[in-house]
Every structure is written in structure tokens, then in C-alpha cells.
Amino acid sequence: MTVPENPSKALEAQLAHRPDVQDLVDRNIMKDPKVAPAIQQHRDELEKRKIEDALRHKIDHRPTAEALVEQNILKDTKVAPALQRNQVELERSLLQDALEHKIQERPDTSELIEKGILTEDEVPK
Fold first, then answer.
1. Alpha-carbon distance values, 3 to 6, 25, 37, 114 (Å)
2. What stretches of residues are RPEL repeats (predicted)?
3. Other C-beta atoms within 10 Å of 40: how many?
């Protein structure tokens, strides 16, 4: 580390660029100097307890797995988590195949007219 030729000027330059007290307080680097340290400590402890109580309340009132299954948030499956993605992909593939099969077997417009499901003026041109 080198020492500048004029340390007082270097120190003045650094002091000119330092943040003000309120900025340090806003960024939680420094405690508010207007409030007694004992009160600040008590306030911080109360805030921690408030957060702990809120988290404990949320944990105590979280929904059960059954409720999450009913809301379609969780899947009701007996498959290992590592295989669940493959199971979902397989189910999707089976559904896609079934839909493609049904689309291929659907009747054309002439059959629908013969069965009385469509009329001639309802047929798209």
C-alpha cells in the first residue's frame, strides 16, 4: 500500500464522497442515531418475534396434502417423484393419441347431412 504525497488532501477527497448518515440508516448499515440503542435493540427483537409468529401461524395453517390434491395443486400419485415427470408426459401422450384417433374417425359433412345433424345451408363453403 502506497502512501499519497499529501494524505490530508486524499482524506478530504474521501470524506467529501462518503454517504450521509441518513443514507447509511436507510441502507441498514448504521442504526438511527436519534433513537437510544436499548430501544433499537428492543424494537429489533420485537420485529423478529413478529416475523417468527407470522411464520409459525402460516406453518400451522398450511393446507394438507389432500386439500392441495383437491385443488389440483398437487397430483395424487403413488409414483416416485423422480418418475412423476415421465408419468405426466406419458398421460399427455396417451391423451394426444386418443384425440388424434377420434379426429380421424369423425364423420365428414356429407355423413352429418345424411344423419340430419347438419343442413345444407349450415355447411361451410
1. 8, 31, 37, 101
2. 9-34, 53-78, 97-122
3. 13
